[in-house]
Amino acid sequence: MKRRSPPDTLPAEARSPCAVACSLDIFGDRWTLLVIRDLLHGRRRFGEFAASKEKIPTNILAERLARLESAGIITRTPYQDNPPRYEYLLTPKGEGLRPIIRAIADWGGQHIAGTSRRDATGQIVPAAAVYAAAGAKL
Predict the structure, then answer these.
(1) Are residues 60 and 71 both part of a single domain?
(2) Is residue 100 predicted with pLDDT exceeding 80?
(3) pLDDT at 55 over 80
């Protein structure tokens, strides 16, 4: 993947120049990475995100989608005019979060008993089975 140069100017709302702190300002709450996970798994519409097992409240979902769009992580495209409805897609910047989500899922699968993962076929299975098939220990 081609790396982009970071912008020269720190965002005005940044609490420090620390890259971790600035990243957490965008996606460091309990919901945003779950929305990104759902986008990576092919969900595109508000109702699909709201139907996730975690049951994100719709007001928070709307705010997180707006935040991700303003950060350039997703784009919003209308698919219906009345009432207005949108599809959301990851930008290349958003796709850059794929290895981070994968690393978090790997860590959780290896260190938190009872978690689940997608296997090589895309089916959701106990994480222990995914790591056992790959020869990794829990």
Answers:
(1) yes
(2) yes
(3) yes
124 bridge partner residues: 118
CA 35 to chain centre: 5
If asked whether residues 70 and 138 sit together in one domain, one would say: no
Q: Do 84 and 107 fall within a single domain?
A: no
* Co-location of 36 and 48 in the same domain: yes
- Please say whether the beta carbons of 110 and 131 come within 8 A: yes
Residues 6 or more apart whose Cβ sits within 8 Å of residue 54: 31, 34
DSSP string covering 67-118: HHHHTTSEEEEEEETTTTEEEEEE-HHHHTTHHHHHHHHHHHHHHSTT-EEE
Whether 102 and 127 share a structural domain = yes
pTM for this entry: 0.81
CB 48 within 8 A of CB 39: no
